[in-house]
């Protein structure tokens, strides 16, 4: 899903993104914080290309705050799946809880390529690590791989993981508390969209998280969350909100074609997705 280039009429946007990547790489050559941010950029580009594209459509100042958060999220999301041994997965999650506790206490952070830039991003934006800690705790569900018994339980999971990450990103870009509810709503909708694309893979890996297979109520609830987010004005925090750029299309397709859920068709055509991101970037929307 990494961007392989667009049509000639979109070269200007591609050049801006390439220029931003060059600035990050230049920081890496200078060493220090730039090197850490560049490492985060590589992690996000490889593991979360949708968020990477959205981030690179924003200003460099926003990228330096968002990329460490997104790299942290990837590390945490991967932790439950690195081993079939639950204890090993739990140890990896506990590492990140301990790292966040160290950041909160102002102490030294582990020698990890994401830990130092994460500490810098949190301290620089004046953010408490508590929201990120809730993300880690929620990922224990991925280790247990038990089905969600109620829609509310699944929504709580999406709120803690994707909703929490969206709020952290929006807050890192200067949003005040009034935007927490719409940011979390947008994150939950994005979380459901991503989850619907992944349900078949999750089931193959041993997690039948929603065994009923009835997704209509979930999709309707995500639609309500999108409406809440659309009523908000994210302002300078728009680059974080734009990480949900693919969610409306995915949810619309899931509503219209339930049989596409868990298949590659749900993601939509890649060329069309790229055009949507270019469009929302030019129009300063998400």
From TrEMBL:
InterPro entries: Isoprenoid_synthase_dom_sf (IPR008949), Squ/phyt_synthse (IPR002060). Pfam families: SQS_PSY (PF00494). SUPFAM superfamilies: Terpenoid synthases. Transmembrane segments: none annotated. Residues 1-23 are annotated as: Disordered. It comes from the Bacteria. This is Phytoene synthase.
């Amino acid at each position: 899903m990494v961007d392989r280039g667009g049509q000639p009429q979109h070269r200007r946007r591609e050049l801006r993104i390439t220029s931003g990547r060059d600035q990050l790489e230049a920081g890496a050559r200078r060493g220090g914080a730039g090197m850490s941010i560049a490492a985060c950029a590589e992690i996000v580009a490889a593991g979360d290309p949708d968020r990477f594209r959205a981030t690179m459509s924003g200003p460099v100042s926003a990228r330096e705050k968002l990329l460490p958060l997104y790299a942290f999220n990837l590390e945490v999301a991967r932790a439950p799946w690195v081993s079939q041994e639950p204890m090993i997965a739990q140890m990896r999650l506990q590492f990140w809880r301990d790292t966040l506790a160290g950041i909160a206490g102002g102490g030294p952070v582990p020698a990890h390529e994401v830990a130092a830039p994460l500490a810098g991003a949190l301290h620089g934006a004046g953010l408490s690590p508590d929201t990120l800690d809730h993300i880690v705790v929620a990922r224990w569900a991925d280790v247990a791989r038990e089905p969600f018994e109620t829609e509310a339980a699944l929504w709580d999971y999406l709120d803690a993981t994707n909703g929490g990450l969206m709020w952290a990103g929006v807050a890192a870009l200067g949003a005040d508390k009034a935007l927490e509810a719409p940011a979390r709503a947008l994150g939950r909708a994005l979380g459901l969209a991503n989850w619907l694309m992944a349900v078949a893979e999750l089931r193959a890996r041993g997690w039948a998280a929603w065994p009923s297979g009835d997704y209509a109520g979930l999709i309707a609830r995500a639609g309500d969350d999108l409406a809440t987010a659309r009523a908000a004005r994210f302002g300078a925090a728009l680059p974080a909100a734009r990480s949900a750029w693919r969610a409306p299309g995915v949810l619309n397709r899931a509503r219209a074609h339930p049989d596409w859920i868990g298949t590659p068709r749900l993601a939509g055509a890649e060329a069309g997705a790229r055009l949507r991101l270019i469009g929302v970037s030019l129009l300063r929307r998400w």
